[in-house]
Amino acid sequence: VGLLHVVLLTDRSVEMGGWASRNRVSPSGEAPIKEHKRSVKHAKIIRSNLMAMESGFWQTLPGCMRKARGGLGVVMSKNKKWIYAIGGYNHKGEDLRSVEVYNTETCTWTFAQPMNHKRRGHGVVISPDGKKIYAIGGSNRRGMRALFSVEVLDLETHTWTMLPRMKSKRRNVGVAISPDGQLLYAVGGNDGCGDLRSAEVYHVKHQKWTYLPELGYKRRGAGV
């Protein structure tokens, strides 16, 4: 449904968050896989499942997120031990700035330092050296206000710092980072008025955003 996020372990895929139709979700917050393929009007947040690739079936992770959330950002640490669930919105539609971390060894969730701003539909990416996580754009005010803002989590100091804002507001933005960690890309999205063809790049060393050549088509929610 566009609000589900997946990360890959060595032999398994982990999906978390999202939403499914209210009358098809169990009281525990789980949902069958077919529910993920349907757009639904009435929604309830679902929690975390895990799929073993060889067997091809879904299993519930031993432990739920502390806050059910959709529209979140998800990244995995370089050593594959930690999964970060960042922002999103809860079952009431309220935007979140909270961050949770899943330990794949102990199968437990803990809260991490929250972001400076509430965000849903934002892009997240981890630096190649595994030391920083970027949260880019998104929206708040129940999805009504698209955001320019960008912030970074330092995984050594566990603090969020605001970065120079993008040139364009972008929610449902596609993001990527260069192999050397020096260029951060924000591609397409929606600025609250319409979908975007524009793309821009952040130069980490110079702390500056510049526009890139436009896409051939307007895109939001694109993979990058």
UniProtKB/TrEMBL annotation:
Q: Return the SMART domains for the record.
A: Kelch
- InterPro entries the UniProt entry points to: F-box/Kelch-repeat, Kelch-typ_b-propeller, Kelch_1
Keyword Ribosomal protein in the entry? The reply is no
Where is coiled-coil annotated?
none
Q: Which domain of life is it from?
A: Eukaryota
Entry GO terms, CC? nucleus
* Entry keywords, A to Z: Repeat
- Segments crossing the lipid bilayer: none
A Pfam family hit: Kelch_KLHDC2_KLHL20_DRC7
**What SUPFAM superfamilies does its record include?**
Kelch motif
Q: Which Gene3D superfamilies match?
A: Kelch-type beta propeller
Q: Which PANTHER family match?
A: F-BOX_KELCH-REPEAT PROTEIN SKIP11, GALACTOSE OXIDASE/KELCH REPEAT PROTEIN-RELATED
Q: What is this protein called?
A: Uncharacterized protein
- Native species of this protein? Lotharella globosa
